[in-house]
Design a protein that fits this description.
The chain is an alpha+beta fold. Helices cover about 30% and strands about 25% of the residues.
């Protein structure tokens, strides 16, 4: 077990563990830490606690100090200066006529590095751009290409539900989302209805997927016959969230009624299993093959059948 604190560098960013050393920062405190990018200003979201050694990547970097008012002022100054840097970077990109879209720029806490995030449809040769930016800002320059999901997370916005984007509000990591989830949830497969502002499938398709998968195992499928308190019927619709089953029950020759039952009130009707393929193959092998003359090949006869065949010489 190791003593760690959990910090985030951005709102809804990933959680990183650091060694608090002799310090004891509490949740809500700002801390100065050393990362692979350099000295960074971070927010402590989890106080000192123990975690298993399997959940951390050793060796952990130590917290340099708990941030004071001067550190907070310097951090705010870095953020305020990023807008001017952003506009100059855009101008440099236009001068070099590069096919790239600048998303965001940010300084490390000690301004030892300037990181520029961009999106592009392909590979971009930005070596000349890096030289110009390094000469203009007198610091190390790192250009990092990101995807459209990361772009939406950085810029933020409002989703089709009218609320702030989940990725920029609370999602630390992106979860894999597939079109299969939309099908299982009976959603419209119109791309404009199930895609987020990033153009990819909405992250919220993942939220209820576990419930739908569990309901699919317990509830009967649409089109299957079931036994209900009112008799035998056919499933026409499912409501996995409320675990309800809508059943069509025949009444007379040309009429029927629709009833809604709880999943526990209906029983599946198991139809007789068809003959197994292996049994059918066994039966086919038991029938000897005959040639064009109608003769049976000895290779196709069993030992008992061979014994029953008279020897031509006898």
């Amino acid at each position: 077990m190791s003593m760690v604190i959990g910090v985030r560098f951005k709102n809804a960013g990933k959680l990183y563990y650091f060694d608090p050393g002799k310090l004891w920062p509490a949740a809500g405190d700002a801390v100065i830490v050393e990362t692979a990018r350099g000295i960074e200003y971070a927010q402590c979201v989890m106080g000192v606690h123990e975690v298993s050694d399997d959940s951390i990547t050793a060796p952990l970097k130590k917290v340099i100090r708990i941030a004071g008012e001067e550190d907070a002022e310097k951090h705010r100054a870095n953020i305020e200066s990023e807008w001017e840097v952003y506009k100059l970077c855009q101008q440099k990109i236009a001068d070099h006529k590069l096919d790239m879209k600048l998303v965001k720029v940010e300084y490390t806490f000690d301004r030892s590095k300037l990181i520029a995030y961009f999106t592009s449809g392909g590979r971009v040769d930005f070596r000349a751009l890096v030289k110009d930016l390094a000469a203009a800002f007198k610091t190390r320059i790192e250009l990092k290409q990101i995807g459209v999901r990361d772009e939406a997370k950085m810029l933020g916005g409002l989703g089709s539900c009218g609320r702030p984007l989940c990725c920029s509000s609370f999602l630390g990591d992106f979860q894999p989302v597939s079109i299969k989830m939309a099908k299982e949830q009976s959603l419209s497969l119109n791309p404009t209805k199930i895609s987020g502002v990033c153009g990819r499938l909405m992250c919220c398709l993942k939220y209820e997927q576990d419930l739908y998968e569990r309901a699919r195992k317990t509830l009967p499928h649409v089109g299957k016959d079931v036994m209900t308190p009112d008799g035998r019927g056919t499933v026409v619709e499912l409501n996995p969230l409320q675990e309800l089953v809508k059943v069509r029950i025949p009444k007379g020759q040309d009429s029927f009624e629709i009833h809604v039952y709880a999943g526990s009130e209906v029983q599946r009707i198991v139809s007789p299993q068809p003959q197994k393929t292996a049994d059918r193959k066994k039966e086919q092998r038991s029938v000897p093959k005959r040639d064009e003359a109608g003769e049976v090949s000895p290779e196709d006869l069993s030992e008992d059948e061979l014994d029953s065949v008279a020897d031509p010489e006898e």
